[in-house]
Specification:
Layout lengths: L1 H25 L8 H21 L8 H26 L11 H22 L2 H17 L4 H39 L15 E9 L2 E5 L7 E3 L12 H5 L6 E4 L7 E5 L5 E5 L2 E2 L18 E2 L2 E5 L5
Length: 310
């Protein structure tokens, strides 16, 4: 019963992390070069492993195949967590992850999935159950054999405790590393915000895909959000993490011919506007000269690159 429950829990945790990554993929990561298709591959692998673990949930005994499936699931959870941590620390394929609630929750679920599936893969259930059965039989049939049966049961229980202790210790270490990494991570990508509040926000131009677009001082493409108005931004919370608002006092660089201004943001600070559109950068633009956020329907509406012509 315990074995089945752990396998069901492991399958559920893998499916949960797959669902979170699918949502992240659909709401923005699909547009990031390399990272996008890696996210999709990760989602497919997680759902496939969840199905495989579920298929073994009611298997009798502790055969090699169920153990290998559980080990693969545990390894996948660790690998996924490791990729997330590396992306927070140093970045992957030119993209550095930002701190989000979804990413943190996914990390915690991956630690839990590892703990559960590692126990399923490594715990000597068969030996434990066999020892218990033999001990019970010996106790009932031959009192002289009871010490040997008790010894077998003791070895099985000791092995089980060792596996649980190891899985628990590794999981606690992983949680500590995750917590420290998330706490130290930034909530804004390399391209934005364009400047600190109260400082100059220099607007420049660049030609991307044959179109002259507005950029920030670092050369990152600027965007406008369809649901915004000329006097109000509706991009806050997670939206503002993926689409950092351009803040500061606007300064028009060469070629910037439109009307620039500012609006007040809820909670304080100002956001730069261009021809009545509040301006943003995009986390998916990992380098200047890219416009991966153009025409994306994310975070509640359409995003468009800001053209100099308006």
């Amino acid at each position: 019963m315990l074995r089945t429950s752990l396998r069901l829990a492991g399958a559920g945790l893998l499916a949960a992390t797959a669902a979170i990554h699918l949502d992240l993929y659909l709401t923005g990561y699909r547009s990031i070069p390399t990272i996008g298709w890696l996210f999709l591959l990760q989602v497919i692998a997680a759902f496939a492993l969840a199905a495989a673990v579920l298929a073994t949930a009611f298997a009798r005994g502790d055969g090699l195949v169920p153990r290998l499936v559980a080990a693969a699931g545990a390894g996948f959870a660790v690998a996924t967590l490791g990729g997330y941590l590396l992306s927070l620390w140093i970045g992957l394929f030119g993209f550095r992850e930002v701190r989000t609630t979804a990413g943190t929750v996914a990390g915690v679920i991956e630690v839990a999935a590892f703990a559960v599936l590692a126990v399923v893969a490594a715990a000597p259930y068969a030996a434990w159950a066999d020892s218990a059965a033999r001990a019970a039989s010996a106790a009932g049939a031959d009192a002289a054999a009871r010490p040997a049966g008790d010894a077998r049961l003791g070895r099985g229980l000791a092995g089980m405790r060792a596996v649980l202790a190891a899985a628990g210790a590794l999981s606690l270490v992983a949680l500590a590393v995750l917590g420290g990494s998330v706490a130290a991570a930034t909530s804004a990508p390399a391209g934005g915000p364009a400047s600190a509040p109260g400082t100059a926000a220099v607007l420049k131009t660049a030609t991307i895909g044959g179109v002259t677009v507005l950029t920030n001082a670092k050369g990152f493409t600027l965007y406008w959000f369809a649901p915004d108005t000329s006097a109000r931004s509706v991009c806050y919370g997670t939206c503002a993490v993926y689409w950092p608002p351009v803040t500061g006092a606007p300064v028009a660089g060469p070629g910037v011919t439109g009307r620039i201004g500012t609006i007040s943001r809820t909670g304080g600070g100002t956001e730069v506007t261009y021809d009545g559109h509040p301006l943003y950068t995009y986390v998916g633009d990992t380098a200047p000269g890219r416009a991966n956020g153009n025409n994306l329907d994310l975070n509640g509406g359409l995003w468009h690159e800001v053209t100099v012509a308006g």
